[in-house]
Design brief:
The chain is α/β, with parallel strands linked by helices. Helices cover about 60% and strands about 10% of the residues. α10 packs antiparallel against α15 and α16 runs antiparallel to α17.
């Protein structure tokens, strides 16, 4: 794979490889909680059931419908029981770390292989830079979600097939590459059924381009069936009977139209969502880059990987941006191709001053992406989870009462409580009036941790009662940022605070 690369390109690859690893490690450590409910409630809460931490009535409807594959929950259960880990935050961190490091390795293997489709050394360097710093990559990679893991397995399979087509391996080596690629495609399918569209598009391209014959297809399918068999056995073990979760998923969401109950959107919804992302420029750049690439490279392997998958999701009624995450690893390559082609066009028809402006523009764009990436990597995925981790690390459950102002901790008294994180049974409460706080302090010896979720950093008014003293012990915004309230940005930002409250001593 390194053949034909200069020493400077190799050094650039290794440097940005290391930078990317740092981003993934930061995201794994700081990105506590979940980005979407399914990431937690269909994996960690399912695992909590087998670990004896929750009950079926507290699980999402997917459990009763038997539509959720057990492979990922099974891994969480194995991790906890094999290494005797009972701390939920440690389990969740290890899952993020494993998912992140695995996705990091896959993305860079794919990047190295895809870079051969770029002509200039500058384009290769830009691909390495963007793979390292693209703002959502590390954050999505560390999500132990069905979309994230399916995408990683898919791109590992794609990379192995591209190695097979580039290297012309020995007969035995070729069989192993094809078999392992099929196994990865199968594991991706087990994690998330919809990603089956990606290998279908890829195989059609390979057949048209005469890159694979009937024997090769059979070997790939054999590997996929092995993985699917593993998934079937894990489902039998988890649900206690033989079930076909893929069929159940299709029946519930397509035949019974369950997915439509969560909202139906027009075909262009994904374009709207990308165009109005928090970082609008990046979303617009992404739309332009993909349309440009598909127009200029219609017969490319990467076009055939993307277009069928995108078309199916554009036609589906219910849409969520996370459904497209399995394609996230191809984003840096597509964007670099667009940037390089536009830069070459400007260089050809413009003055040296314009060329310098283009280079400066590229530097500014990458700087903005780097800043956005860092902010994603050091931010929690769920705003309340910093509270729970702080509680878990600093207090014993029988020493405190955790109380929310106008809200229940751990989602208690809601349809889906966070039993995975609260299986040890913290004493929880909800306070709407100051009298409730006073009463709790009188009835129970120890401290009350009072938390608020509101815009800005403001003391709850109930703390102004004469009988208590309070100390701010946690804030989701660090002190140095709270000291910089430029243009009163804090009053427009949802901030989580925790106050340690005790009775005043006479």
């Amino acid at each position: 794979m390194w053949g034909g690369y200069s020493d400077s390109i190799k050094r650039s690859f290794l440097f940005w490889l290391g930078i990317s690893l740092v981003f993934h490690l930061l995201a794994a450590w700081y990105s506590i909680g979940y980005m979407h409910y399914d990431e937690h409630y269909q994996i960690l809460e399912f695992a909590a059931l087998k670990l004896g931490w929750t009950k079926p009535q507290f699980l999402a409807w997917e459990y009763a419908a038997r539509i959720r594959p057990a492979l990922q929950p099974g891994f969480v259960i194995w991790l906890s029981k094999t290494f005797h880990i009972s701390d939920p935050f440690s389990i969740a961190f290890i899952c993020r770390l494993i998912a992140g490091v695995f996705a990091w390795g896959v993305s860079w293997l794919f990047t190295l292989i895809a870079s051969r489709h770029l002509v200039s050394d500058r384009a290769k360097r830009n691909l390495f830079i963007l793979t390292a710093i693209y703002c959502f990559l590390a954050f999505i990679h560390v999500r132990f979600s069905s979309e994230g893991m399916a995408g990683s397995f898919c791109f590992l399979a794609i990379s192995l097939l591209m190695i097979y087509w580039q290297k012309e391996p020995s007969k035995t080596g070729g069989v192993l590459l094809l078999l392992f690629a099929g196994l990865c495609f199968g594991l991706a399918y087990v994690c998330r059924v919809q990603v089956a569209i990606i290998p279908i598009g890829l195989m059609v391209w390979a057949i048209v381009k005469k890159k694979i014959d009937a024997r090769g297809i059979f070997i790939v399918l054999a590997g996929a069936w092995i993985a699917i068999g593993i998934g079937v056995v894990s489902d039998w073990w988890f649900y206690g009977k033989w079930v076909n979760t893929a069929y159940n998923y299709f029946h519930s969401n397509i035949i019974e139209n369950k997915a439509a109950s969560f909202g139906v959107m027009p075909w262009y919804n994904y374009i709207q969502v990308l165009a109005f992302m928090p970082f609008d420029l990046f979303g617009l750049l992404l739309i332009f880059a993909f349309l440009y690439y598909f127009y200029r490279h219609l017969t490319s392997i990467f076009t055939w990987i993307c277009i069928p998958f995108l078309l199916v999701h554009f036609m589906a009624g219910h849409k969520e941006l996370r459904f497209l995450f399995p394609l996230i690893n191809i984003v840096p390559f597509i964007v670099v191709v667009a940037i390089e082609d536009i830069s070459a066009y400007i260089t050809k028809f413009s003055s040296s001053r314009a060329n310098k402006a283009t280079a400066i523009g590229r530097i500014l764009l990458y700087t903005a992406i780097f800043i956005a990436s860092f902010s994603f990597c050091v931010s929690p995925a769920g705003r309340e989870f910093g509270i729970y981790e702080h509680l878990n690390s600093n207090y014993e459950k029988d020493q405190i009462t955790l109380a929310g102002v106008h809200a229940w901790p751990f989602g208690l008294h809601s349809l889906l409580p966070l039993m995975f994180y609260n299986h040890s049974g913290y004493n929880c409460a909800r306070f709407d009036k100051a009298e409730q706080l006073d009463s709790a302090l009188l009835k129970k010896k120890g401290k009350v941790l009072l938390y608020t979720i509101q815009r800005g950093v403001h003391r709850p008014t109930m703390l102004d009662t004469a009988n208590v003293k309070s100390t701010l012990v946690y804030c989701s915004v660090p002190q140095f940022l709270r000291d910089i309230n430029f243009n009163k940005w804090q009053d427009r930002t949802t901030i989580v605070t925790v106050y340690e409250v005790e009775q005043k001593k006479d």
